[in-house]
């Protein structure tokens, strides 16, 4: 099938590459001309394991093309997929400015029958609104069908997740359209859930809100563990073994970040509040996440016997999690911003990113960053940090404190190097 994907970001680019691999002819369009010209020169603008190889293969075979003319892409493809960003507005609601602008372009180009797939994460009711918007813009109802098809991939494992989703959700009451959308994914083995449009939109928000709830739950329980001298890692294993709860997403740490969980929790709260249904549970989930970092900085302060201008702190990690270059709502960046206001020297290293943060000096390697440090904070769980040479780290540091903000390190290896291990919710 001919598919036009609008938005060449983490979702658009990954989906485009996977659909090309499944045998479709895909045009991926972005208004960012520089991004498109880089893609046409074989430069992938984001880091996502396996993406470059897949894009390269299909671009060279002409099954995947990159362009920046949205209207032309709409005219030439029967299936249009919207994968633009839906960031948080000031009040936390999803800002649909990019979606609206894409719909305007679609309206101006649409003349024959199209299926418009909403891949972007959008609030409940957006599909209905998009349909009314297109009609108001003069498009005949019989010329299009808006279908919700939310995306559940995780950054860092986006290609794998797209080929092996837990489920494919298709939101439409139009059977013919549902069949066409389902056929796009032929070759992928997954349960397909065909439901209403608003239900599909809420499945996406409900999923992210539930994942965030699991994380804030375990992070809050980690605080109780700390107070009682218990180990959250053991507690989480015991809890997760109950199949009704599940073992995944129970890793305590300095809080969840990224471009999705924080914004989608806020957007669902805003959507619910707009209907006079304030979500108290999610409010608490967000609050726990917002205070998790502060609790950890206070712990560092306590362990160091004060955090002031005499201290040199090293931080490993900048991205919001490992295996991505994405810095959006990164807790690692937030912890550096907080520490930079208090410590005299802050050195940092990340394998992929070195964002400009006042007071932070970026080093070329993990070992260079710890030179002379009183304490080391692990803010992102990169494998490189897990596998560090702790004897060498101990030699280079001035102090001995290793704060494992992601509970990923091998405690024994650290302690046998003479260093002091401090995790989250661990004795
Ligand atoms: N990143 C993820 O892991 C992930 C996973 C699932 C769902 N989502 C959702 O998918 C959507 C996209 O997320 P993302 O992370 O890929 O965003 P992104 O910011 O990486 O990419 C969005 C792209 O859309 C382009 N764009 C914006 N307006 C445009 C327009 N009018 N015409 C053409 N291109 C335009 C931007 O230039 C950008 O390249 C969001 O709604 C997000 O919540 C993201
Ligand atoms: O046990 C865990 C798991 C994750 N995290 C943190 O939670 C955040 C989010 O992680 P993850 O969900 O793996 O990353 P995303 O790529 O943001 O993926 C989420 O957001 C996407 C965008 O909506 C969805 O598609 C995915 O299903 C959903 O997992 C990161 O800061 C992680 O460090 C933890 O602290 N402990």
From TrEMBL:
Metabolic or biological pathway: Nucleotide-sugar biosynthesis; UDP-alpha-D-glucuronate biosynthesis; UDP-alpha-D-glucuronate from UDP-alpha-D-glucose: step 1/1
Stored InterPro entries: 6-PGluconate_DH-like_C_sf, NAD(P)-bd_dom_sf, UDP-Glc/GDP-Man, UDP-Glc/GDP-Man_DH_C, UDP-Glc/GDP-Man_DH_C_sf, UDP-Glc/GDP-Man_DH_dimer, UDP-Glc/GDP-Man_DH_N, UDPglc_DH_bac
GO MF terms held by the record: NAD binding; UDP-glucose 6-dehydrogenase activity
Keywords: NAD, Oxidoreductase
Full protein name: UDP-glucose 6-dehydrogenase
NCBIfam families membership: NDP-sugDHase
Organism of origin: Paenibacillus paeoniae
Top-level taxon of the source organism: Bacteria
GO biological process, one term: UDP-glucuronate biosynthetic process
Residues annotated as binding substrate: 152-155, 204, 249-253, 257, 321
